[in-house]
């Protein structure tokens, strides 16, 4: 599964990093995906991060 973060929507709250630190990082105050594609073992946490993003900046493709 491939996840992306829209840098124009990300507000830098780091909620995704708190939920899925293995998947998301904040090198410059904006979230980025560390793994492409996200392994199956981390997809549940990545989906939870997407669902809980207050800016709806995260999306995914199967």
How widely separated are the two ends? 5 Å
Q: Given the helix and strand composition, which structural class is it?
A: alpha+beta
Q: How are the strands of the biggest sheet laid out side by side?
A: 1-4
Mean pLDDT: 97
Radius of gyration: 10 Å
Instruction: Give the name of the CATH architecture.
Output: 2-Layer Sandwich
How do the helices and strands follow one another from N- to C-terminus?
A: EHEEHE
Number of helices: 2
Level-1 CATH class name: Alpha Beta
CATH fold category name: Alpha-Beta Plaits
Roughly what fraction of the amino acids lie in strands? 15-25%
Find the count of extended strands (DSSP E, 2+ residues).
4
Describe the model.
With 62 residues, the protein is an alpha+beta fold. The chain has one domain: Alpha-Beta Plaits (2-Layer Sandwich). It has 2 helices and 4 strands. The protein has helices spanning 15-19, 40-52; strands at 2-5, 24-25, 32-33, 58-61. A two-stranded antiparallel ribbon has the order 1-4. Strands 2-3 form a two-stranded antiparallel ribbon. Strand 2 (24-25) and strand 3 form a beta hairpin. It is globular and about 25 Å long.
Features:
two-stranded antiparallel ribbon; 62 residues; Alpha-Beta Plaits; alpha+beta; 29% helix; single chain
Summarize the SSE layout with pairings.
Blueprint: E1 2-5, H1 15-19, E2 24-25, E3 32-33, H2 40-52, E4 58-61
Antiparallel strand pairs: 1-4, 2-3
Task: State the gist of this model.
The chain is of the alpha+beta class.
């Amino acid at each position: 599964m491939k996840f992306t973060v829209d840098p124009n929507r990300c507000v830098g709250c780091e909620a995704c990093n708190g939920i899925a630190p293995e998947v998301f990082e904040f090198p410059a105050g904006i979230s980025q995906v560390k793994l492409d594609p996200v392994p199956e073992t981390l997809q549940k946490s990545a989906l939870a991060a997407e669902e809980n993003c207050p800016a709806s900046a995260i999306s995914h493709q199967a």
